[in-house]
Every structure is written in structure tokens, then in C-alpha cells.
User: Fold this.
Amino acid sequence: MNYPIYPKCGIFYFEIRINKGTNGLIGIGFCTKTIDTNSMPGWDNESWGYHNDGNFYYDSGKSNPYGPSFTKDDTIGCCLNFKRKTVFYTKNSVNLGIAFRDLEEVIYPCIGLQSQNSSVEVIFSRKKFKYTAITDDDIVNELLRKKWLEALDLPNDEAINQQQYNLLDSIFEPNNVHLLEYQGKINFILGRYEDALLYLTNLLKIEPANAFALSYRGKTYQMMEKYKESLVNLYSLLKIENNDICALKIRNEIKEVIRERKLKLEERDLRVLGLRIQLEEMLMEQEGLAELSGAHLKEIWERKKQEEIDEVQKKIQSLENDLKEKIKSFLEVGQQEQSIPKVPKQKEYNSEELNLEKLIQLLPEREYIQQDLDILKSLHSHLLMLKDDLELIKSGHKKPREDDLLKILKFPEFLDLNRLEQEL
Assistant:
């Protein structure tokens, strides 16, 4: 595209309708002026794009799984929200969630095709958009339809808030159904999801079976990745309008997201199980055990924990002794140069009560003293850090260091000792 999108436009949305092309690559996104126009969106370091394989591409070809794949007869939308600095895509009127954040500069709409005999129709007219949330199609009140178009072009949140206050003060009552619908919708499309939920929930208090509110609450929770809450609203909507196409599509999309997450968790659990078995075998070999029970693991854990505690306590004792000697040395130098008052020899110096800043002020400005003082500050900082570590180790909130063979003992979430003992 040859015409730039400026951040001051607020929100910019466009769609492509895929007319031909089932093989090869199709991408839709955005770019700067300096990109290589022969590459796909996201294959250049100044372009970003959602491809028909379901991945979002960026930074010269890096990619993340994002949404479903798409092909012939699908309609894909791209929404650039400069107010929130975010980008989301839609597929056949279903919002797929945030794909990109930190939208900043002047950019251009970007479409890429590497598919034989492929063709797409690019749509910039709001009247033709398949994603109705960006249009005024579901706004009943004529005045609010006009305000909708104005709101999308307002420069910032303050201007949008002022528009809503003006509507409330001069035209509508606070609990007017049409106004609450408008406020819920405008805040949803602007990415102000908490505000959208506030207005939509108030609307449902007035009309519990309001299909508009249930639909947009379902969409809002979906964008916030609160899928359980989204499904509750969508199922309530389908009880009222059992053929609501958008609700059915979103419900199916959420189910697919949940299914994929479950598969990833199962895959992770299998990897962890394999690691656990491998490390258990290493432990058995290292400890000379014929079998490994939960009791054995607890014994190894406690032994390693105590070894770590003993090691830290030795370091603390050594550091405290070193600190005391350094402090005495500082005081003797200061007394010789009459820069600080004499201190009784029998006074003990508690490292925790040591005020280093005060000591710095009292000591004479001598280079050799400053060098030693830097060492003292480092020792003191290390000492306090070790003491904190010791308390964490004793309380079980910090795991002691072990040999590589015992790494599994560092991660209690990988190994439930009680459960393992019951299993073995």
C-alpha cells in the first residue's frame, strides 16, 4: 500500500478477502516505508504479519504461533490501535486476540502473496467489513451511530471520556440501555476492557437477557484471555439466540485454544516425567541404591540442605570476623589522625548495626582508606545477602545448590515427594 497510517488516526482497520489461492503463502500486516517490497510481511526487520500458516512473523522471519490457518474464502482483518499501541487480527468476524504491542511509528498496510494464481480483495470501507464490532451495524440509536464514527477518530482517552460525559449530561440518563451498549462497545474496540466490562455488567443488571451485553462481554473476556468467563457469557447468549453465528465461532475458537493449551501441558508433563526418571536413575547410581523411594529422596534432600546451611554459616562467620578487623583498623586510623573520637577497646561491633554512611563521613579523606572502605562495603553487602539466603534456605523458600545430578531437587514443582512416595 502506498498511503501511510499516522498514529494520530487512533484506530485503523482493514480486511482482505481471499478469492483465490490455496497453496503457497498469504500474509497481512503492516510495515515501515523502508522494507523490501518483494518479501512477505514479517520477513523484513521493519515489517510484521499474520500468515496463512497461523503464525505471526516479525524481526526478519522470527515467528510465534498466533491464530488459526486461513485459506480461500476466508476474510482476515487487521486492527491497528494507536491509542493502546496494540494490533489484533480477525478471521471471519472473530477477534483472534492481541498479536503485537508497542505500536509507535508511521506505518503502512502490508499484504504479501506467494501463492500461484492467488488473489485477494482489500477492504477499507467500514460498510463492507465482516467484523461488525468495528462498524456501527449493531448500534440502534442514530445519534450514537454518528458519535461512534467520531469516537474512532478521537486522538486520546481524554477526548473519548469527554464525549461520553457530554452524552450523559445533555442527552441520556445514566442507565439508558442504548448509551450503556455504546459505552461497552466503544471501550471494547478501544482496548479498554475493564471499562467495557463495567458498562456491560451494568447493562445486564438492567436487562439480564440482553444479547448485546452477553455477546460483547464474551468477546471482552476472550480478549483478556479469561476463557472460562467468556464461555459462560457465550453459552448464556446461545440460550437466547441459539444460532448466533459469531458466538458459535468464538466458542469454537476458545475451545481450540483450550485444547492446544491442554496438549502443551500434557507434552510438558511427559518431558518432566522423562527427566524425573532419568535423574532418579542417576541418583540411584550415585547413592548406591537398588531402589529409590520417597524416603530416600527426603533423606538426600535434607542432607544437601544441611550441607548448604553449614557452608553459608561458615562464610558468614568468616565475613563477620573480617568485618570486625576492618572496622577496628578504620577506627585506629581515624583516632591516630584525630578525625573521630576514641572508642573503648572492649566495644563489640555488630555488622548488622554498622552505619557505613556515618563511618564514611567520619573517616579522613585518604585514598588508601577509601579503597579499603570500598572493600568493607562489598563485604558488608555480601554478608547481609548471605544471611538473607540462609533464612530462605532454612524456611524452604530457597533451594540449596546441588550437583548436576541432583538438579531435580531444586524444583519442587517437578517432584512431589509425598505423591512419589505413594506411587513407589
Notes: The beta strands are 11-20, 25-31, 47-51, 55-58, 62-65, 75-81, 86-91, 94-101, 108-114, 119-123. The CA atoms of residues 236 and 303 lie 56 Å apart. The longest helix spans residues 245-287. The chain has three domains: 7-132, 136-255, 294-412.
